[in-house]
Design brief:
This protein is of the alpha/beta class. The chain has one domain: Glycoside hydrolase/deacetylase (TIM Barrel, Alpha-Beta Barrel). It is about 50% helix and about 10% strand. It has helices at about 1-30, 35-40, 65-75, 85-90, 95-100, 120-140, 155-165, 185-190, 215-230, 240, and strands at about 55-60, 80-85, 105-110, 145, 165-170, 175, 200-205. α8 links the parallel β6 (about 175) and β7 (about 200-205). α8 packs parallel to α9 (about 215-230). The longest helix is centred in the N-terminal third of the chain and has 27 residues, at about 1-30. The structure holds zinc ion (ZN).
């Protein structure tokens, strides 16, 4: 039965060549969670907070100009938010990171370097997160409880590791404020479309990893976003206190 043997061996060859793909697929499976709510649910990745409030979140800071601008607008509306800080920026601008915590906002973890998790080993990620956590704690006096990876993209190993110490949190609505084409109007409109209590809004107070000056667009959009939340009658809640 030479032909059957050949068939079997070619099936085995196909299986062997598919195996790395299957492994890679499993490794990258949580990556699409930010844009695929059922996938986020499957991996038990929170996108919302269990609260009658709305959680505003700002990623990629601190930034010497962007963060103070956002802090001023939040203070004027008596609003509290959550800032997912990047360790390498905390190192550059420790006084800005401290000002975030001193103003009563929650500080959370976004990594030490802003690197896609799919490009890292779990060991590299573990070192990166431990370094960022220790620095944020040292500078702000607050211990981050939440983790959001760069671009919201988890690897399977990264998710399993992060979950041992932090609560992963994505978002349920965004303003796409990092793009070059964003305007204050487009950001506010997108971020507040179908806004409801429990939403987690993704925004950025820094342009370190996005279009230059994008934080100005975010700052320009924020008054309308704050108004929309107030119009809902929803309080502004930091993410951890909300759950
Ligand atoms: Zn980021």
């Amino acid at each position: 039965m030479p032909s059957l043997r050949r068939t079997r061996s070619s099936i085995n060859r196909v299986r062997r060549s598919l195996l790395p793909l299957a492994v890679a697929g499993a490794w990258a499976a949580p990556a699409a969670a930010p844009v695929c709510p059922p996938l986020a649910d499957a991996f038990r990745l929170d996108r919302r907070v269990d609260s009658p409030g709305v959680a505003l979140t700002f990623d990629d800071g601190p930034h010497p100009d962007g963060t103070p601008a956002i802090l001023d607008l939040l203070a004027a509306a008596n609003a509290t938010a959550t800032f997912f800080l990047v360790g390498e920026q905390v190192e550059r601008y420790p006084e800005v990171a401290r000002a975030v915590a001193d103003a009563g906002h929650e500080v959370a973890l976004h990594g030490f370097r802003h690197t896609l998790l799919l490009r890292r080993t779990v060991r590299e990620l573990a070192d990166d997160l431990a370094r960022a956590h220790a620095l944020i704690e040292d500078v702000t006096g607050a211990s981050p409880q939440l983790y959001r990876p760069p671009y919201g993209v988890f690897s399977l190993g990264g998710l399993l590791h992060a979950r041992r110490r932090w609560r992963p949190l994505l978002w349920s609505t965004w303003g796409r404020d990092w793009t070059r084409r964003a305007t204050p109007t487009s950001v506010a409109r997108l971020a507040t479309r179908d806004l409801r209590p429990g939403d987690v809004v993704l925004l950025h107070d820094a342009d370190h990893y996005s279009a230059e000056g994008s934080w100005r667009v975010t700052a320009g959009s924020l008054p309308a976003i704050l108004e929309a939340v107030q119009a809902l009658g929803a309080p502004f809640v930091p993410c951890t206190q909300a759950t």
